Amino acid sequence: MDVELIEIQEFLASHPPFDQLPEETLARLPRRLSVRYFRRGTPFPPEATDSPCLYILRRGAVELRNPRGELVGKLAEGDLCEQHCRTAEDEPRFQGNTAEDTLVYALPCADLSELRAAHPAFAEHFEQSTSRRLRKALDVVTDSPSSGTGLMTVRVRDMVQRAPISTGPETSIRDAARIMSEHHVSSLLIMDGEHLAGMITDRDLRNRCVAAGLATDQPVRAIMTEKLTTVDMDTLGFQALITMTRLNIHHLPVVESGRVVGLISSTDFTRFQSANSIYLVGDIHRADSIETLAQIGGKIAELQVHLILGGATATQVGQAISAITDAITLRLIELAEADLGAPPVPYAWLLGGSQARREQSAHSDQDNALLISDEAKPEDDAYFAALARFVNDGLNACGFVYCPGEVMASNPKWRQTLRIWNKYFSNWILKPEPMALMLSNVFFDMRSLRDPNGLCEELHERIIEKSRANRIFIAYMAANALKNRPPLGFFRNIVLIQGGDHDHTFDIKHRGLIPIIDLARVYALSAGIMENNTNERLQTAAERGALSRDGAANLIDALELIATLRMRHQAQQLRNGEKPDNFLAPDALSPLERGHLKEAFVLINTMQESLGQRYQTGRFA
């Protein structure tokens, strides 16, 4: 074979989907290609001829635009343009221009059809949308022999053992206890017809009846818990467990189409204990010192490794670790109050950053603050300063290191009354200077962990409405969201760090995850969305029309893929006894993973440019 043909074969073999073809097929393929050259500014793809073709970019760059002239994609080395080979029912067609002199290989559509018919793995690339390809890539990344048997895949319907045991609200406490004893259950649902009125447990019988001296002939409604959290039959077991650990409860009623169909308890999860490190939460609630909590915190890295090896995605790992951190933080607050006494006025402990979004990894610092009632007097700050110092020191001892920017409750600036917090947010919205935008990225993600008086909810609703109404602020936030770009060069090569400790790597957090998180935040603020989790923000933005449904789905899949690759990278470092970081070497990925990662980066870049055009962010840079 000619040297030129060998070079073409090697080029094809290194790019999806041609890497799915057998070697003998690849060896014959170069002879079926023609080489075409387009000068810069040439319309692309060229007008269809009698022999329409698939175009494979060998060198150069192409910009594709929709009928409105908006940039929707870029093509560079290794990319395909199969527009002329699609049927009328396929994805929409685009027209663009070569951004520089461009060399392509052209494969007749008839030959492409033969290859697709003969090689299903090759054909899948052309049969799937961007979202489906990213989803398949994620499935490959998380594929594990153990993943099919654990809480990551089992659904609540598979855990419900029998029909619910129930009684009415007027049943006596004595008869309710007898029913529980006869059926050997530790809880009893209280049904008012078809309506779930409440539930009692063994603990309720002890604490609310026997210990309180309540007569057992009283109706069971006197001791039942009325406000119940329920779970749907199709909920993943892991998500149900996260709900139970986050709320520190041991029973969850199960519903289907609004009808109660069963009950799951902590005992049921023991049978599916593939992710048993999550039971650290139970130990946390019993911990009586920072030293004990620090020992538990030292197991969080092991939890991340365990979950990743079990086939968990980044969303599942983030929920698990955030639930652990929430539990540790709450226990530290309880220990602080036990030592300092009751707080002089109501307050809320605020979370920021990845913990607030429930997207933490084992490699996270702490972002938090204190929101104090306006009833506070100057002398009350000594109490809250001591509480904040206790909790921040405790979190650091548990492995959640101090925030480098000192965004912590122990910093007096972030330990303020509701009136001052309202003033902070108003100033950030009205005067979006660089520091204000940076702080907005932290505090517009906030959620409260301990807030019995609803102070945070009052603040959150007010600032979301203010930000939504201020389009200049949204435009500045949009411009700020475009500063972290995916690490792609003009030829779609991944741009790597050169020299230093992270030579030939890229920062997958700041160049991959943060751009999507920032985009979701802008969509949320522009639509007045209260959610702070990135996936939930994107889904709600699509429901409210702030973002297309396809755009939201693609960004969610891109986020999951990039975040899971990051989690897997950190898990491998932890297994090797190394300190986890965010610097990933492309050589550590398979060619297919690198291809899908580039596709995710291209998607992010396209969505960023679309946002920039919407808000004309060049005026605010």
Explained architecture:
By secondary structure, the chain is α+β, with helices and mostly antiparallel strands. Helices cover 46% and strands 14% of the residues. It has 23 helices and 20 strands. Strands 1-8-3-6 form a 4-stranded antiparallel β-sheet. The protein has a 4-stranded antiparallel β-sheet with strand order 2-7-4-5. Strands 17-16-15-18 form a 4-stranded mixed β-sheet, sandwiched between helices. Strand 12 (231-232), helix 8 and strand 13 (251-256) form a beta-alpha-beta unit. Helix 3 crosses helix 4 (120-127) and helix 8 packs parallel to helix 13 (314-340). The longest helix has 27 residues, at 314-340. It is globular. The protein starts with a helix and ends in a 6-residue tail after the last helix. Residues 144-149 and 273-277 have low confidence and may be disordered.
